[in-house]
Amino acid sequence: MFGLIGHLTSLEHAQSVADDLGYPEYANQGLDFWCAAPPQIVDDFHVTSITGQTIRGKYIESCFLPEMLSNRWVKSAIRKVLNAMALAQKSDINITALGGFSSIIFEEFNLKDNRQVRNIELDFGRFTTGNTHTAYVICTQVETLAEKMGVDLAQSTVVVCGATGDIGSAVCRWLNEKTNTKELICVARNQERLQSLQEELGRGKILPLEEALPLADIIVWVASLPKGVEIDPDKLKRPCLIIDGGYPKNLGTVLNAPDISVIKGGIVEHSLDIDWKIMKIVNMDIPSRQMFACFAEAILLELEGWQTNFSWGRNQITVPKMEQIGAASRKHGFQPLLF
């Protein structure tokens, strides 16, 4: 059995779907209440591969909200992730994916030093961030959509925003090793990490966001949009392909302009229907088929019997591991979202 740990996009979103999740008494409660709310298993379902294999999964709502990342509530955010992991392990789930901000919180706050959660000692081998599959899917979206749009990567500039993150650095490695991309521009806040990535790749320009975006034929966005930062679509190249790998995915609204194509990055579509409700709650276009690629990684690991922390640790994703999870993804009937 596999598990998925997720969260909703905002307090407003959480209040609006509390009834669907099975706890209507939360609907009118404020952030202080949600900070105290425990994680809950809210979905129990089955996934069938195109090979005919069927496995069981559970979705754990962590009750974490992005608003909790402010200083006042950050301890609640940490507690939410650890408690959700403990619930997954206590429920005898073999492999669980940390979705959305869950994996980011784990890495940023060094939660590996917090193995003991009440009477449970966390076994980190039972958890994966799902970032390897997400990075593979985003790279496949870049290559496939560029070809469909008539964009020649050999003549193109690709800007990766969030390049030093786990997914961003993996995307850069893939573009560097597997494609003939003419120019790679890396954007991130941490200059020291940017320079280390540049040295590792042996190429790639380092530019601030406002200088990089107007040069891009393709933008891979795998970072949060900082408060107060706005992107002017009039300053972007036309045509411009944008792979929005952030969460929540809102660049399609911000950059709604002619000849700018914004694709939901890191989303996959399964070949067969899945009997779950959670993807409807998080507003997938086809909730019975579509899901976040990080969640799909847990499904793939369970289907393949790779019950291990396939994606774990900061910036450890390699191109061979992306190829490995990509082959499993195709084998079991997943394909990157392309429209």
From TrEMBL:
Native organism: Microcystis aeruginosa PCC 9701
Quinate/shikimate 5-dehydrogenase/glutamyl-tRNA reductase domain: residues covered: 145-252
Transmembrane annotation, as ranges: none
The answer on whether this UniProt entry bears the keyword Transmembrane reads no
Q: What is the annotated role of this protein in its UniProt record? A: Catalyzes the NADP-dependent reduction of long-chain acyl-ACP to the corresponding fatty aldehyde. Involved in the biosynthesis of alkanes, mainly heptadecane and pentadecane, by producing the fatty aldehydes used by aldehyde decarbonylase.
What keywords sit in the KW lines? NAD, Oxidoreductase
What is the protein's given name? Answer: Long-chain acyl-[acyl-carrier-protein] reductase
List, in alphabetical order, the Gene Ontology terms for molecular function in this entry.
Answer: oxidoreductase activity
- Family recorded in the similarity comment: Belongs to the short-chain dehydrogenases/reductases (SDR) family.
**Entry EC number(s):** 1.2.1.80
Q: Which Gene3D superfamilies match?
A: NAD(P)-binding Rossmann-like Domain (3.40.50.720)
The organism's lineage?
Answer: Bacteria, Bacillati, Cyanobacteriota, Cyanophyceae, Oscillatoriophycideae
Which Pfam families does this chain map to?
Answer: Shikimate_DH
Q: Which cofactor does it need?
A: a divalent metal cation
Q: What reaction(s) does this enzyme catalyze?
A: a long-chain fatty aldehyde + holo-[ACP] + NADP(+) = a long-chain fatty acyl-[ACP] + NADPH + H(+); a long-chain fatty aldehyde + holo-[ACP] + NAD(+) = a long-chain fatty acyl-[ACP] + NADH + H(+)
